Structure formats: C-alpha cells, structure tokens
C-alpha cells in the first residue's frame, strides 16, 4: 500500500460483507403482493430511479421491527470481514461500510455476529406498527442514479488513497472515483465495459490477500 499517504477503504455490505443480497430477501419476504417485482423490472430498465424503486418497495412492506430484525439475524456474513478489519487497524487505514441497505438492518447483523461495526453509512428506517418508513439521508441532488450516492463520502477524504470493494450497480459512482477497486458480479461487468481498472474478487479473503501482499494497484490491468 502507499507509504506516507493516508488510506481509506470503503466497503459495500449486501453480497460483499453479507452472503447474498439481504435487502432483496427482505423485500421478497415481507412484500404483501408481487408488485415489488414490477418495480424491480422498471428500475432495471431505467424507467424509475433507485430512489423511487426503494421508496415503493420498502414503503410497501408489511412487517414490524422485531420480526424484521429476527429475520435478518439469519444472514450469514463473509468470515474474512474480520480479517479486513484487522488489516485496516494494523495499517492505520480508515474503514467505512457504505450501503444502499438500511442502517438498523446492518447494525443488527453485525451485533448478532459479535462484530464491532465500523462507521456505517446507509439509508434509514422508521417503524409504525407493521408499516415501514424509509428515508435517504445520503441522497445527492447531483446524482440521478443513486438513492444513497456512496461517492458523497469521498469528499471528507481529499488527499487520501481511496480503496473500494463492491459488487453491484449501487457501487458504480464510488467505484468510478476510487484509486483502486475490488469488484465482482454486475459491478465488475460495468467497470470492464467502461475500461476502469479493477481487481476481481470472489470473497473478502481474496481482498485481504491482495492488500496484505502490498499491491499498490494504481494502474492495474483488469483481472478477468
């Protein structure tokens, strides 16, 4: 990693730290009808924004807080996330979790697994009986793509060497700005199409391996 330059590592949650997409599972399980599938298709075809899609899907859920939290306690996480935390602590790297999921869900999963959560930046939820009310504190008025534009957090780290780890379309904005990117799945496909260099990973163990090996990666070729 860079010598005297400070480093910050941003990491996505769903299907990156977690095994599988937690929010998709929540929406599928607690939606009272199949309408969420149409909204998902509309989003994939760019007929509605991510913000509108999540407002509709999450705002339409029928579940109380305790039932939701009990459900997400079943979520498995990549066991090597702890190694990522250890690497960050050993190297003085700031570590932040940035997610299009919701803070109360992420914090409960970390708590359940006995993990001291790093700073978490995510969307927010309130509950009124079995009604779920989403809000989006990190929406950027200049970004039409995202409900939570994860790139907004880069502003506080001017002059840092920025690392990003993610898997999906909600990771595009920060991945395009980061100095080094670890990517898989649809994020990797997008970066490949855009010619943005990245290192492909399958699990967080791969990421730790690259970081621990001291690869600088400022002008890496794409790993197919």
- Side by side, the strands of the main sheet go 4-3-2-1-5-6-7
Number of helices: 9
What is the 3D shape?
A: globular
Distance between the termini: 22 Å
The portion of residues forming beta strands comes to 15-25%
Radius of gyration: 17 Å
Order of helices and strands: EHHHHHEHEEEHEHEH
> Could you name the CATH homologous superfamily?
HAD superfamily/HAD-like
| Integer count of domains | 1
As for the CATH topology, it is Rossmann fold
Largest sheet at a glance? 7 strands, mixed
Relative helix content: 25-40%
Structural class: alpha/beta
CATH architecture: 3-Layer(aba) Sandwich
**Mean pLDDT rating:** 92
Contiguous low-pLDDT stretches (5 residues minimum) are 215-224
Describe this structure in words.
There is one protein chain. It is built from nine helices and seven strands; from the N terminus they run βαααααβαβββαβαβα. The chain has helices at 22-30, 35-44, 50-59, 65-72, 81-91, 103-112, 172-177, 185-194, 204-212, and strands spanning 7-11, 94-102, 120-128, 131-135, 161-166, 180-183, 199-200. It has a single domain (7-24, 73-212), classed as HAD superfamily/HAD-like (Rossmann fold). A seven-stranded mixed sheet has the order 4-3-2-1-5-6-7, with helices on both faces. It is of the alpha/beta class. It is 37% helix and 18% strand. The relative contact order is 0.17. The two termini are 22 Å apart. The protein is globular and about 50 Å long.
